[in-house]
Design goal:
By secondary structure, the protein is an alpha+beta fold. The chain is about 40% helix and about 25% strand. The termini are far apart.
Length: about 350
């Protein structure tokens, strides 16, 4: 017992070493230090034994996902961009930050349109190790805007869309604030579900989320794309036996179109609700697109055509948020775009 306690104390001592940015995605966690020299990317998942002890964290736990026996539970701590399982999230972050080499403070990107209770959950993460005073939050749209080198403190209007695994974040910013935002509970995971449904109905094959994600990443396209195909394995829905099928890229691409169109409709809805001057700014400057799911082949071209407004695909969109966090941490003038637990209480 004493040895275990000593290890925990030593582990906590390691946490007071560097300021870090933290991007907690539904599917992945990204951690980078203030100097930008160290980076960690891991799946946001934990595998638990029946007695509640942890079997595996992060990428190792993802290897177990959809293969685990009945006595192993795989938990995704995040759901729809917010923390759904605080205990598992705390365990996973403590493990990953220790593996990262420690942190003295955290700047965490969060969705704009979430409740105060949901925002407080982000402060609760790592509170026992760092204390709430060492944790600050920033709206994800502002972090993406900084990453795109936009003048976020100016009075001009800017519009950003981040398509992630669990959510799509639509943000309109001006004067260092998100003046209008919407967090859609659709993203890459919904597209995976669309693909799995298509394969079940069209090919009588039941596949898991990991297989559906592979089909999306390897085959999906918008507008014109290559006619590729991929062999997948699953359970035949009629015989109940293992079976393989070759899935064409066109079928995968058609399967996700409704979800993509829903995102486009919401972008248009937000745009049409803007004050005239902000709308004028955005119509000239265009919309900035980021997030890992935005890397689907020709998706930016499809959105640009549908909304009729210039669209800019942020460079290296999968890492735009974490990149913006580091820039905010290194620019004192941008500190006002972040907020603490006390600031959150004052917002009521």
């Amino acid at each position: 017992m004493g040895e275990q306690s000593d290890r925990r104390v030593r582990g906590r001592d390691m946490l007071f070493q560097r300021a870090c940015g933290l991007d907690l995605g539904t599917d992945t966690i990204k951690i980078r230090d203030k100097n930008g020299k160290k980076f960690l990317y891991n799946r946001n998942v934990v595998a638990l034994r029946a007695n509640g002890s942890v079997l595996a964290y992060g990428d190792a736990a993802y290897l177990v996902y959809e293969k685990q026996p009945a006595n192993i539970e795989v938990v995704w701590p995040m759901a729809n961009g917010v923390i759904a399982n605080l205990t598992e999230m705390d365990l996973l972050l403590e493990y990953l930050i220790r593996r990262f080499g420690g942190a003295s403070s955290l700047l965490i990107a969060v969705p704009t349109e979430i409740t105060q209770v949901e925002k407080r959950a982000f402060f609760q993460v790592m509170k026992g190790q760092l204390g709430s005073g060492r944790i600050r939050l920033v709206d994800k749209g502002l972090s993406d805007a900084v990453s795109a080198a936009l003048p976020v403190l100016s009075g001009r209007g800017h519009m950003l869309v981040n398509i992630g695994a669990g959510t799509t974040e639509i943000s309109v910013i001006s004067s260092g604030k998100v003046i209008l935002g919407q967090t859609l509970k659709i993203g890459g995971r919904q597209m995976d579900a669309d693909i799995a449904t298509m394969v079940r109905r069209k090919f009588n094959l039941a596949i898991g989320q990991k297989t559906a994600e592979s089909l999306k990443n390897n085959l999906a396209f918008m507008v014109n794309g290559p006619r590729l195909e991929q062999k997948v394995f699953g359970i035949h829905t009629l015989s109940g036996l293992p079976k393989s099928e070759v899935i064409p890229s066109l079928a995968v691409s058609v399967a996700i179109i409704d979800t993509v169109d829903s995102i486009v409709e919401n972008i248009n809805s937000i745009y049409n609700r803007l004050p005239p001057q902000i709308m004028k700014d955005i119509s000239k400057e265009g919309i900035y697109l980021s997030g890992g799911v935005s890397m689907i082949l020709n998706l930016p071209d499809y959105i640009r055509k549908e909304i009729g407004i210039p669209l800019h695909h942020i460079q290296d969109p999968k890492y735009s948020t974490i990149r913006g966090l580091i820039e905010i941490m290194n620019d004192k003038e941008l500190k006002p775009v972040t907020y603490t637990l006390n600031d959150l209480a004052a917002m009521r």
